[in-house]
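[audit] Reproducing an earlier prediction to check determinism. Same input, same settings, fresh worker. If the tokens differ from the archived copy the diff job will pick it up downstream; this log only records the rerun itself.
[audit] input (119 residues):
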Amino acid sequence: MAFYDTTLQLDTLTPLHWIGIVAALVTAGVHLALGISIGGGFGIAFVLAAIGFLAGIAAVLLEWRRRLIYLLGIPYTAGQIVLWFLLNDVPPIEPSHAIDKIAQLILVAVLIALYRREV
């Protein structure tokens, strides 16, 4: 027997949740693609970041401590935005990076809204 219900709780998701899930999927996809193309230690960090986003999506879909996931997701995502600016010479911004950062900004906004709504 599992410690929690393993059925998807889709009926409890709002349009705001779906916006966050799509944004997290976009940034997970970008991180996975970049991680595979970069390879090495830095590539592994990108793949691990993608796994983190996918784990957050799974937790939300399973309705596992959603409020905690929102709270942890805010600095997790915002921290990646800050690290990106520290580790890259901008401008120019590559299209894949721009898509990723826009998705991450949307995700942070959604996570803040969801967290505030459940307080």
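[audit] rerun output stored. Observation attached for the diff report: The radius of gyration is 15 Å.
[audit] end
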